[in-house]
Design a protein that fits this description.
By secondary structure, this protein is an alpha/beta fold. The chain contains 14 helices and 12 strands.
Length: about 425
């Protein structure tokens, strides 16, 4: 197996503020931890201590050769109380972003990544339409303060996952179990994205910058019938895809509503993305309204199917809706012993590079092992291993593979054999 990277494809890494920074107890996820809902009882206010250790992490990024970085702002840190913005925290973000720029690593800045300030969560978060105004106030402030350093923005990360897990399944904060609430949250988040899209572009234009790109990070899966010949399986695959991602994608990209997205005055036909942000991890095999995994397929350490072909399928479907450059805003694998991460990266990159689609960025999820939401510290996705007792960082073998791919602009047969091939492939390892 061998392939070359596209000439304009940058390879980077991604992270979320809540999952790495530590030092903040003013958000809904720390409250969720405090209530005992994190599986291994890992504390998000510790995480990887990136807030203090960011220079160490930046040095590792430079060592690996990371070409672009997707990072987030912790809303609860910069606006700890309604209407009060912490200028010291904002200055700290400026310092990190400036250092990344000086290192030649452009930033894609995520403004909302699952985490709400407690004061907003207590008012209903995105389940309340009027709360969109708080989000937009925060967005404006961040662009005014960081817009001279950042030209690319993710308004909201995975609104479908946020709404589904928090308001339908009840496994994430605030632990609700209501289809109607999930629908309302999806609708409000679509409206929030559309309004933020225009606000970010307008604010940066007023600041004298015309090179703005705004999008959202869209969690996309392939939904496949368990039995392709079974009409009921095909029906449920189509319906689950629509409910989980299809309708929300069209609303946020094009301003077109369909069930379960409701009406909102801000959701009107248009084009509301300058790039197509795709978070891709797995395929779901469907025989009814519940999720499933295909039998006999390789899975990661969380039981998710490893299905590289799916990354092209979801990107192509999105590109057919709106022709924009594609950013893989997340792609990675839970592999706690780093046994197959290099192969996972290679297989997904190969599919992308041979797809003919305009893929311009690939942000591996994630750079360092981090605090993985309800899984706590138990699920490792990083290129860099973190010893949570000492906070020592060590580049994994897969991280060295990624470094070589960046340096060599592709994967040669020799590189594949060195890092990716298994004995069962009939190749030397």
């Amino acid at each position: 197996m061998e392939f070359q990277l596209k000439d304009n494809l940058l390879l980077g890494a991604a992270a979320a503020a809540t999952q790495i920074e530590g030092g903040d107890q003013n958000n809904n996820w720390y409250d969720w931890y405090r209530q005992g809902y994190i599986k291994d009882d890992a504390d998000p206010s510790v995480a990887t201590e990136h807030w203090e250790r960011w220079r160490e992490d930046l040095a590792l990024m430079r060592e690996i050769g990371i070409q672009c970085y997707r990072m987030g702002v912790e809303w609860s840190r910069v606006e700890p109380a309604d209407g009060f913005f912490d200028e010291k925290a904002i200055a700290r973000y400026r310092e990190e972003i400036q250092a990344l720029r000086d290192a030649g690593i452009p930033v894609l800045l995520t403004l909302h990544h699952f985490s709400n300030p407690l004061w907003l969560e207590e008012r209903g978060g995105f389940s309340v339409r009027d709360n969109i105004t708080y989000y937009l106030r925060y967005v404006r402030k961040m662009v005014e303060c960081l817009g001279d350093l950042v030209s690319e923005y993710v308004t909201i990360n995975e609104p479908n996952v946020y709404a589904f897990n928090g308001y339908f399944e009840g496994t994430w904060p605030p632990g609700r179990k209501s289809f109607l609430e999930m629908s309302r949250v999806m609708t409000n988040m679509a409206a929030a994205h559309i309004e933020a899209y225009g606000l970010i572009r307008k604010t940066r234009l007023q600041m004298g910058f015309g090179d703005t790109r705004v999008g959202f990070a869209n969690h996309l899966r392939v939904f496949a019938p368990k039995d392709q010949e079974n009409p009921l399986h095909r029906f449920w695959a189509s319906r689950v895809e629509q409910l989980f991602q299809g309708s929300l994608t069209r609303a946020m990209c094009m301003g077109r509503t369909a069930f379960p997205i409701g009406k909102h005055p801000s959701i009107v036909p248009g084009r509301y993305c300058d790039f197509l942000g795709v978070n891709y991890y797995t395929r779901s095999t469907v025989s009814g309204p519940a999720d499933g995994v295909a039998e006999g397929r390789p899975v990661n350490d969380l039981g998710w199917e490893i299905y590289p072909e799916g990354i092209e399928a979801v990107c192509r479907k999105m590109y057919e809706l709106v022709q924009r450059p594609i950013y893989i805003t997340e792609n990675g694998v839970c592999d706690n012993t780093d046994a197959f991460r290099a192969r996972y990266i290679a297989e997904h990159l190969k599919v992308l590079c041979e797809s003919g689609l305009p893929v311009e960025r690939y942000y591996h999820w994630c750079f360092c092992d981090n605090w993985e939401w309800v899984e706590g510290n138990a699920a490792r996705f990083g290129l860099v291993h973190v010893d949570y007792e000492s906070q020592r960082r060590t580049v994994k073998r897969s991280g060295r593979f990624y470094q070589r791919v960046i340096e060599e602009r592709g994967v040669s047969e020799a590189l594949w054999r060195e890092f990716c091939a298994y004995p069962t492939d009939g190749e030397e390892t």
